[in-house]
Amino acid sequence: MIARAIHKRSNRAERAFFGVNCAAIPASLIASELFGHEKGAFTGATQRRLGRLNRRNGGTIFLDEVGDLPPEIQIALLRVLQEREIERVGSNKAIPVDVRVLAATHHDLDTLVAEGKFRRDLLYRLSVVPIQMPSLRERKDDIPLLVDYFVVVSAKRLERSSEP
């Protein structure tokens, strides 16, 4: 919700917003999902496919559970943040992208860096404006507000009144 609020209040609000749960995508598919792939890049790649970063050009992508990214994807993501370009799987051609990257994780990334499981330079690039969000159990006063919000959202989706 915070990532979406940042997007809606930015100069990119009219552009695409997309969230990706990095922990939910298998490690073998995450590169193709984020960066796209060329026809024939791997078994089953019958056509060129744009990745989520490329399809969100000009917009915002929210990488949830970024602490679960495999090391080779961390390197590619670092390139996106530093060079503002991607390479599709099976290609060596750089493609410029303009996308804001917001990231979240439940992991302590400093600990993962110390253990060699997360790149220090990627953490540096992602931590431009860190926002610490306490867990919901530490913010019990927010629960009624969240319930009200989700009732309104659900009512709109179901084309119902949110009034009792």
List keywords for this structure.
alpha/beta; 164 residues; single chain; three-stranded parallel β-sheet; two-stranded antiparallel ribbon
Mean pLDDT value: 89
The parts where pLDDT drops under 50 for at least 5 residues are none
Number of DSSP-assigned strands: 7
> What is the molecular shape?
globular
Which structural category do the helix and sheet elements fall into?
Answer: alpha/beta
Terminal CA distance reads 25 Å
Query: What Rg is obtained from the alpha carbons, in whole angstroms?
Result: 18 Å
Question: Roughly what fraction of the amino acids lie in strands?
Answer: 5-15%
**How are helices and strands ordered from N to C?**
HEHEEHEHEEEHHH
